[in-house]
Design brief:
By secondary structure, the chain is an alpha/beta fold. The protein folds into two domains: 264 residues, 3-Layer(aba) Sandwich (Rossmann fold), CATH 3.40.50.10540; 72 residues, 2-Layer Sandwich (formyl-coa transferase, domain 3), CATH 3.30.1540. 36% of the residues lie in helices and 14% in strands. The protein is built from 17 helices and 13 strands. The strands form four sheets. Strands 5-2-1-6-7-8 form a six-stranded parallel beta sheet, with helices on both faces. It has a three-stranded antiparallel beta sheet with strand order 9-10-11, with helices on one face. It has a two-stranded antiparallel sheet with strand order 3-4. A hairpin with a 2-residue loop joins strand 3 and strand 4. It is elongated, with a radius of gyration of 25 Å. The two termini are 45 Å apart. The N terminus and C terminus are likely disordered.
Length: 398
């Protein structure tokens, strides 16, 4: 039985009834707000008349971006000019009806617009106001421009990763934006925590999420090692192991898996060998361990290696492309993808990576057209029909 089916017909949306104003752009903030939308919140995305920049990010079909779609499915779209008085008044009136606000402008932008937390809480003390930025809202680096690749470099992550690449001296290029997704997820967790606290206190609060500190949380060993003299192993413990047809990743993280691996490769005597028997000695001699493993693995295809390792309970995987990973029957079993629709047609988005037995966390099925909900929200908040709230550009982002 699939987890999603356990309470079929009885699940509800955990955040149903909550209203979110999403001023964010690119990835970190939109990812955070997409999670809120999947949990059932009404998320109102505030955009400029030209639309958020990710609307032009490929893949594009009939001018519609599926990358934008994955980050913003299920949100309403309202076009506002944040530099106009009518636009600011519209935000204040919307904020009075909202539970959560998410923004990732460069620190200082919302204050200059008089839409910062201290200004907005005057009209809604229950509002949970989440600010995502590169370095945090205050401090000597606060107003520096920052995107994920910059934060990867600034956090030490790229140099830490380089230290595990034998023979390399130049950091890798950045194509996958860990900092954005990680920071957006931390923002989501902080918002959920603030909602619980509000249920006790009746008050909202300001949440200040730092991309720099989020990335530092990935470097557990390095962060601790930076404080003490820690000798690095001669060879990284986790890397590609060559086979007759490619490579596999083998992870040995316990005595049980080490012993099982030694049995698989035909080296049971190494279990009691003084060079490998204890964890510390094993790390010092890890290159010899992996040389022995590759002597075994190079004689077999990747598939044959995986069969042998799997039978012994040794964690291992082939190196797959994203396309190959998406074809994994496990994802189909978990219903990990949902089909959604925009003006360009249908495409698939990744669902939230957790399942809840008592909550429906599936995404909406359609994407909003730019400005689709502007008139309806303008009518709701009682702003004059001729108010110029749908022209101009939004403020500078960070």
């Amino acid at each position: 039985m699939q987890l999603a089916d356990k309470h079929e017909g009885t699940t509800t949306k955990a955040f149903a009834g909550l209203r979110v104003l999403d001023f964010s752009t690119t990835i970190a903030g939109p990812h955070c707000a997409r999670m809120l939308a999947d949990m059932g919140a009404e998320v109102i995305k505030i955009e400029s008349d030209g639309g958020e920049t990710m609307r032009t990010r490929p893949p594009l079909r009939k001018g519609c971006s599926t990358a934008f779609g994955q980050l913003n499915v299920g949100k309403k779209s309202v076009v506002l000019d944040l530099k106009s008085e009518d636009g600011k008044e519209a935000v204040r009136r919307l904020a009075a009806t909202a539970d959560i606000l998410v923004e990732n402008f460069r620190p200082g932008v919302m204050r200059r617009l008089r839409l910062d937390y201290d200004s907005i809480r005057q009209v809604n003390p229950r509002l949970i106001y989440c600010s995502i930025s590169g370095y945090g809202q205050t401090g000597p680096s606060a107003e520096l421009p920052a995107y994920a690749p910059v934060i990867h470099a600034a956090s030490g992550y790229d140099m830490a990763h380089l230290a595990y690449q034998p023979g390399r001296s130049r950091p890798d290029y950045c194509g996958i934006y860990h900092a954005d997704v990680l920071t957006g997820t931390y923002g989501f967790g902080a918002i959920a925590s603030a909602l619980y606290q509000r249920s006790v206190t009746g008050l909202g609060q300001h949440i200040d999420v730092s991309m720099l500190e989020s990335m530092l949380s990935l470097t557990l060993t390095e962060l601790q090692g930076a404080q003490f003299a820690v000798k690095p192993p001669p060879r990284p413990m986790f890397g590609p192991t060559e086979t007759a047809s490619g490579y596999v990743m083998i992870t040995v993280a316990s005595e049980k898996t080490f012993q099982a691996l030694m049995q698989v490769i035909g080296r049971p005597e190494w279990i009691s060998d003084p060079r490998f028997a204890a964890y510390a000695a094993r790390r010092d001699n890890w290159a010899e361990v992996m040389d022995g493993v590759e002597t075994w693995s190079r004689q077999l295809t990747t598939d044959a290696c995986l069969v042998a390792l799997g039978a012994a309970g040794v964690p291992a995987s082939a190196y797959r492309t994203v396309s190959e990973a998406l074809a994994d029957p496990q994802l189909a079993h978990r219903q990990a993808l949902s089909s959604v629709q925009d003006e360009g047609g249908s495409f698939q988005v990744l669902n939230l990576p957790f399942r809840m037995s008592g909550a429906d966390i599936s995404p909406a099925k359609t994407m909003a057209v730019l400005g689709e909900h502007t008139d309806a929200l303008r009518d709701e908040i009682g702003l004059a029909a001729d108010a110029s709230i749908s022209t101009g550009k939004t403020a500078e982002t960070g």
